[in-house]
User: What shape does this take?
Amino acid sequence: MRGIVGNRVVRRVASTLGTLFGVAVLVFVMLRAIPGNQITAGLGTEAAGLAPAQLQALERYYGLDQPLITQFFSWLGNLFTGNLGYSARNQQSVLELTLHSLPVTAELAVLSIVLALVIGVPLGTLSASRAGSPRDALGQLVSLAGLSIPSFLLATTLLSVFAASFGFNPNGRGFATLAEDPLLNLQQMVLPALVLGFGIAAPILRTTRAAVLEVRSEDFVRTARAKGVPERRLQVRHVLGNALVPIVTMTGLQFGYLLGGAVVVEQIFSVPGIGRQVLLGIQQKEYAVVQSTVLVIALAFVLVNLLTDAIYRLVDPRVGAS
Amino acid sequence: MTALARRSPAGVAGVVVLAVLAVVAVLSYLGLLPYDPVAQHPPSRFLGPSGAHLFGTDQFGRDVFSRVAAGVGNSALVAVVAVAFATVVGTLGGLVAGFYRGVADNAIGGVTNVLFAFPPLLLALSLASVLARGWFTVAVAIAIVYVPIFIRVTRGPVLSLREIEYVRAAVATGQSRFQIMVRHVLPNIASIVVIQVALSLSWAVLTEASLSFLGLGTPPPAPSLGSMIFEARSLVFVAPWTLIAPGAVVVLLVVGLNLLGDGLRDTLDPRNRGRQ
Assistant: This one.
């Protein structure tokens, strides 16, 4: 038994490593597909004025005279030593930039997920408690709104309405991290987390509703009810408890999406997260930043998915045993 | 359609909304809009909604209704091209992976895993940023993100269909694998594909709008709902209609697609048959 489990873990890790290698190849190829390179990106139109000898020297400096395969492996080798490249514009290494931006996005993601769960799970349970009733319609309406209102529209509207009507615009000031100024930080996080949380509440609501409906029709629920288990305890412990697996999976998936998907909202509210780091890199043509940051996000995404897997094995012992 | 009407009134509402927007999109393709969506007319800037300008005018005196209509046309074009590409490539990939198994399955599975390792919006964003600007490249970027999803939703059912008696019988009668795939397997996964198409379209519209909002979508001055909303940010209090019109229309478009997708799922998905 132990051997089988160990074997499965090894296989999972091996396939994850394979995937990450593929991700690195894709990111590398993607950025090589852009016309121009670090030299033309750094110098702009002035690059055209370079003498052949200068160009050659610069190419040697950046390693661009090497074959692509060599460039790829030296980039990969550098990554392993923590050298993610350097952002000339920020005068900082990409590692430093990432160490600042990743925790910001992680905080935003956690807050958004908490809000989404607070909205989605109770409403989903309520919806399922009487399918087809007005309360079900309310739940469906909320989830349809969450799925259909683009985050940038909601964010733009909230930002201008709050700033104009209530003079509430904490994001207009410089960003404060949680450690620097917790109160200001939370004020700055409220609206972005609300926008993202509302969007994610929809899939969580739908998953909860479907899972609760499914579990409610199971025999053990009828048995528990026949045994006289109080209704509230039945709903929470027996029904919701067993509906947790798909809810946990959906939550994990959405958390992963937030790592890169928060980019629009981060941009609108000037939250210096990792998505915004990619976007700025793209806008400033700092491909070293884009390349390494995208890779870090993909790595984090894959790790979150692995973790979700591990958690639902804990929540549902059947998954591990089958 | 009648089945949809019977099982899902909300789905029918979706069809009605989409039909109206489709008419608007077609008018924009035919150049039958009341005004040229990109023509500037400074004397008539910031006019409120009126009979002459249904949704008012923007900061350059352009007719907001015509721009929104052209934006719907653009969104529809990008979404349809992207999803069509993803459907064909993804379904084919899923068929081949599930039916042939072996090396093909492993190779396709590997590519799928790599593409799934990116948060979808980030992948679309990165791809759109490396490709040349234009509606077609935005469609390609969105399509690439959606290919693995079609592979994944089709491969599973194909795997189980492969073991079903009538497929085995077809193998025994000596039909080629390609014939079996097209004649016996494909029709049986059609409903799954159709549902996924409707749901993917709504996501494609949202992604196109997000990319244009970030300045990575359809380049200006071509009207796009996302970039119109971006430009309207600072005008909310001067000319609220410049934000409300494209905002309401993009929401309407996505709501229509979601209602249709949900309706189709309730109607076509065999797992829902016999349920209310």
